[in-house]
Amino acid sequence: MKKNLLCALLMLLPFGAVHAEQTLTYPKKNIDVVIPKNPGGGTDTSARTVIEFARDRMPSGTMMVPVNKPAGNGITGLLEVAKARPDGYKLVMTTVELAMFPHQGKSPVTYKDFTPIVTTIADPVAVVVNAKSPYNTLQEFIDAAKANPGKIKVGNSGMGAIYDLATINIEKITGTKFNRIPYNEGTGPSIAALVGEHIDAVLTTPGSVKSQVDAGILKVLGVMDEKRFPLFPDVPTFKEALNLDVNVKMRAWAVLATTAKVDDNIKKQLVDTFTEVVKTPAYQEALKKQGIMPVVITGDDAYEMMKDDHELYGKLIAETKKK
Q1: Judgement on whether residues 127 and 225 belong to the same structural domain of the protein
Q2: 169 assigned to some structural domain
Q3: Is the whole-model pTM more than 0.90?
């Protein structure tokens, strides 16, 4: 699978795109890139894509080596890099779970244990309903929830996971109460249940339902972000749809990071290099072909995103423990 994925990534590179100027000068040996997920998923794919586009920026004879370490729900890989020497030779793909797990007693490390480099995924959470649903706007959906507390069935990828917490956040913001239905096997089964009309809505990322929306099977009512999502430019944000005073932001992100307290020069080289990479049209087109919308959130901006989410999920998880 890994060999096939690498070949696919190479095919996405246009002629001449790999001949980039060397911008990483510190490596004297290979850099390990720990991916705390199984091969083939969005986090794994985006990680391999970004390091593939950065490969010619490395010194001759060195390379970035991706290693999948999904053990312990990904905690094993996170711990390895968090405890590594801060020399820039170990990187790791952190995900939004890093903002949740510490508050759930699942992880001893937080965003503070890492130096963010570049964001490869930052897709907003969206409210999705069946195309046959009577709700054509997010306001209609919320109004129905207010009129029928605890009756509208909203699917998620498991209790305490991002989409379940997003549902709780919606309840908090709008004064509603849903019947939260967990599908612990992931978003796939929850989307299938929505297609089969077994539930009323699903919270997931817009890209995960694009094929069903394009086919006229599902429809997206709103996205939890400060701006509209490029895949569905006609779908409003929560602030727009509900006439709120503030933005509602919840995103499923993946951030390539290294160990905390890394040397400032090494940090600058890594952040500058990957900022250039994610701005290149070839890289952005490669991501789009894989159903991932490119973003440019790097360095300190990525740190602030991780910090904000750590605080947000801390509050939401604390509220669930009170119930």
Answers
A1: yes
A2: yes
A3: no
